[in-house]
Amino acid sequence: MANINFVPEDYIQNNKSYRTNLMYLVLLMVVMLGLGSSFLVIKMRQRAINVQENAVNARLTQTQEAIKQFEDLQTKRKTMMKTALTTAGLLEPVPRSILLASLTNNLPAGVSLLKLNLVQKEIKQPNTPATKYQAAQAGKTAAQQQSAVEETSKEKLMETYIDIEGIAPTDRQVADYIRQLSGSALLDNVALVESKEHKSDDAAFRQFKLSAVLKKDIRLTAADIKAIKGGA
Fold it and tell me: Which of 52, 158, 199, 204 has the most CB atoms around its CB within 10 Å?
């Protein structure tokens, strides 16, 4: 006996289309839900990255401010060191009145001074291999070594050069003056630079020039100053 289907073909076709559309709609909702979840995860990660970036920028700003403050302090320190060294250079290790008293009190008979000039110069010390080796052993770089040399006791690297001009009857008095200055407690490296004969009104005399260096680390006591001022 043949089976007879009383359901219309249109109804069956509509049911199939409905199920297909429903399946597509469910798949679309799943895809949209996945996209929404991915979007939310990306947004959360972006916020976390923004928070970390802001924290890094804040630390970077603090570090830059600290570096700027350190550089300002270094600049002020160098300025203060330069001012202190300049002041130390202007301070005379020996008062000029004491030096002049020593120069005049040691004059032999008939000798007179015409001119006196004092000049301070910085001593340039070469870098010896031993100094470089010691700096390397101590773990210092060349820049640190140079900074240490510049910042430690620059006043000790200054020398005072003295130029003396005068007149004397003969070269003997000039030699006596050089000998007496060489024995002075203030001077070192006393040397004759020039000695020329001059005549004036049928009288001959010697015009001489001397050079000397003021001794370093001079510590004059009251008794020394009294002896220098009162010595003849």
Answer: 158
